[in-house]
Amino acid sequence: MDERRLAIHGGPKVKTTPFGTGKRFGEEEARELLEALEQNTLFYHHGKKVKQFLQDFNELYGVDYSVAVSSGTAAIHVALGAAGVTVGDEVITSPITDQGTLIGILYQNAIPVFADLHPHTYNMDPASIESRITQRTKAILVVHLAGNPSDMDAIMAIARKHDLKVIEDCAQSYLCRYKGRLVGTIGDYGCFSTNDFKHISTGDGGIVTVNSGDEEEYRLVHAFADKNYQRLQGQVRRELSYLAPNYRMTELQGAVGVAQLKKLRRICETRRRYGDRITEGISGLRGIQPHQVYEGGTCSYWFYMFRLDLDALTCSRAEFSEALAAEGIPNQPGYIPEVVYLQPLFQKRQAYLNSHFPFDLSDVTYPRGLCPTAEQILQTAVRIGVSEFFDEQDIEDIIQGIRKVTAHYQKP
Fold first, then answer.
1. DSSP letter at 17?
2. Is residue 74 helix, strand or coil?
């Protein structure tokens, strides 16, 4: 049998063994949960688990202050609220992201503004960010997509020049570094998610780092996550001066987080090694554009996404994806179907049912073509899962699958 013949055409599959799997939770989490229950309270202020979770996280990240919240979405909202983002302000962010990045902007009745992306890191292009700044701009919300650090030196320089807050969305980017610095510690705030689909899981949950190291700012962030109550050092203050949500983390989430954090270095290092190996294995293939990481950076690959140069191939993206799946390599065309500003929420300018507020405060529009590179990324990208439970052979099979399909469809 011709080994080069695609499986979709009757040839032999590249991947003939199952991908490695494993258990994310075990006795460590069970012990922590039991200890949480034995406290006879699951409220973060009275228990010890959320406090321990944050202490461990702060030591891992080298920060003095962080606040636990109920989700990564909540973390971003809390950071925006603490940053003073308010009615009619503009916040510049990425058009390839989850809705969780955007919810907090709109809950603060601010206006999302979208910057275009670098074609191969899939993170915001600093030049595009600067071109979107107006007198209404209050903050830059940086999305480190898929565990890949953004160009933070350039972004921080722009923020200082225009006196803007920088909030880092690190939901997919645990322990990745930009020029040696952990992302989430570079901007004013770092926002992390511990929902069930991230590097570590507490079911749902999140963390906000307060990178100034200023205690008063920490108190502000802490209060904004808890109805503007200040529950610190055994005391409770209820002097309400403005609206804030209730995004508290429970002791059960904190307990699982304590155990999960102990596994985080291994998880991220394994994913980094696997993702970098995929890049090494497919670099130089005509028709393939690997996932790029800036020199001096490290990526913890929440997923791996490469792009097709369709001018160099005889197939469509859909045909390539189907052929790769037939080789035993599960994949997904793109990350999300379209850039977020083409969703009905933005096209109808409707954040709240039966209202155009806050969009009617602004002349910002969301036409197709607003971020052409981002749109092209989603039309040409192929996403592959990466897991710490894979083994080395799984990664080699992924590489061989991509190489085999590419070789078949390359133009002469």
1. S
2. helix
Among candidates 162, 264, 158, 396, which has minimal Cα distance to 150? 158
Angle (CA) 337-93-208 rounded to 5° is 105
Give how far Cα 357 sits from Cα of 134, 139, 176, 243, 364, Å: 20, 20, 37, 18, 13
CA atoms within 13 A on the CB side of 115: 28
Instruction: Catalogue the E-assigned strands of 10-77.
Output: 65-69
User: DSSP string spanning 238-276?
Assistant: ----S---B-PPPHHHHHHHHHHHHHHHHHHHHHHHHHH
Q: Tell which phi-psi region holds residue 161, choosing left (phi > 0), alpha (psi between -120 and 50) or beta.
A: alpha
For residue 190 the two structure tokens come to: 């770092």
C-alpha span between 238 and 231 (Å, rounded) = 9
**Structure tokens given for 169:** 């969305």
Buried b (16+ CB within 10 A) or exposed e, 109-123: bbbbbbbbbbebbbb
Q: pTM to 2 decimals?
A: 0.96
- Bridge partners, 182 (sequence order): 177
Q: What type of residue is 84? A: G
Q: How many residues does the chain have?
A: 412
Write out pLDDT tens, residues 9-40: 999 999 999 999 999 999 999 999 999 999 99
User: Torsion-angle region of residue 35: left (phi > 0), alpha (psi -120 to 50) or beta?
Assistant: alpha
> What confidence tier does 225 reach under pLDDT thresholds 50, 70, 90?
very high
Whether 108 contacts 77, CB under 8 Å? yes
How far apart, in whole angstroms, are the C-alpha atoms of residue 37 and residue 392? 40
Strand order in the sheet with 65-69: 65-69, 206-210, 189-193, 165-169, 137-143, 90-93, 111-114
Flag whether pLDDT at 181 surpasses 90: yes
Token pair for 57: 């996280």
Question: Closest Cα to residue 94, out of 144, 51, 44, 135?
Answer: 144
Q: What are phi and psi of 122, to 5 degrees?
A: 70, 20
pLDDT at 1: 56
| CB of 106 closer than 8 Å to CB of 364 | no
Question: Left (φ > 0), alpha (ψ -120 to 50) or beta: where does 269 sit?
Answer: alpha
Report the candidate in 110, 114, 122 with the shortest Cα–Cα distance to residue 76.
110
* Euclidean distance between CA atoms 62 and 190, whole angstroms: 12
User: How far apart, in Å, are the Cα atoms of 372 and each of 116, 117, 290, 393?
Assistant: 7, 9, 19, 37
